[in-house]
Hints:
β1, α1 and β2 form a beta-alpha-beta unit. The protein has 14 helices and 14 strands. By secondary structure, it is α/β, with parallel strands linked by helices. It is globular, with a radius of gyration of 21 Å.
Amino acid sequence: MSKLKIAIIGTVGIPAKYGGFETLTEYLTKNLANKYDTTVYCSGKSYSEKLENHNGAKLKYINLHANGVQSIPYDIISIFSSLRFANTLLILGVSGCIVLPLVRLFSKKRIVVNIDGLEWKREKWGNGAKWFLKLSEKLAVKYADVVVADNAVIQKYVMSEYGVQSELIAYGADHVTKEVLSDELKDEYSFLAKPYAFKVCRIEPENNVHMILEAFSQYRDLNIVMIGNWVNSEYGKELKGKYSSFENIYLLDPIYDQQILNQIRSNCFVYMHGHSAGGTNPSLVEAMYLGLPIYAFGVAYNKATTRNAAKYFNDKDELLGLLRSIDAAELKENSASMKRVAEENYTWDKIAQQYAELF
């Protein structure tokens, strides 16, 4: 009996080296390689070496960027290409779903769409982009056979906004491991000698980078190490210029060596999560699986992900209050709760099985 043919659309590609959807695709293909005949669409612009296969999946390249404005034609081309052979399309994100009404005129292929984290709400988009993404989301929900929400808050939104019951599937995190600090790294980064808070993210207003840095500029008893793309925006450049001179604030450029990044993250005193948009954030569930104590921005998405068991702040003063009342026993309890929630909910074996049931 021939295997069901699955096409995975909407990511930069695999081997994963970009973000959440790419990591999801990496572990879906790894866990389900023997079960399905899988094809993953990849951005030809992002891979100098174009492998034909990875994790048992075939790789097809589209010579466009998978993000930004090119994501729209990139996804649309991938969708039409996959219709020639796939039984089921897994579309990650809504950019290309603008064409689903047309697809439904001539195809009954099974379409599963993960609508991501309400992309149209993000501050970085202008009004035109927000309108387009909201329309794409609406069409994705209307024309997909199955809608996947990665967070309980997103699931409730889909029901209240569109009257559609979506499937709740988050992300795995058991690919991350706690690392011991190497002597070389200790020599390179002086801040590793003392307890430090840690955050890694895109440097965008919606991640509340400014709020966290302002709090630490007023609370000097704990170092903060923040890694991100500071030079990619005026927002980032302004923050780096304003806060780099503080002795307890360390603003590092992106670190692409995963082992080095994991060593720094694994050994932090407390993990800061400032994201205010999106659904279940992969970096948050990874921090939870590492058993890091977490101080998170108190938006509903983060509370749902952490099952209300982290510590939360909604402004600079609330964060300052948390920092000034740090208690070793509370941090230990926070750490244990985060690890337990992650082990129960955020493992790739469980996530892959949930997707398999939809296929």
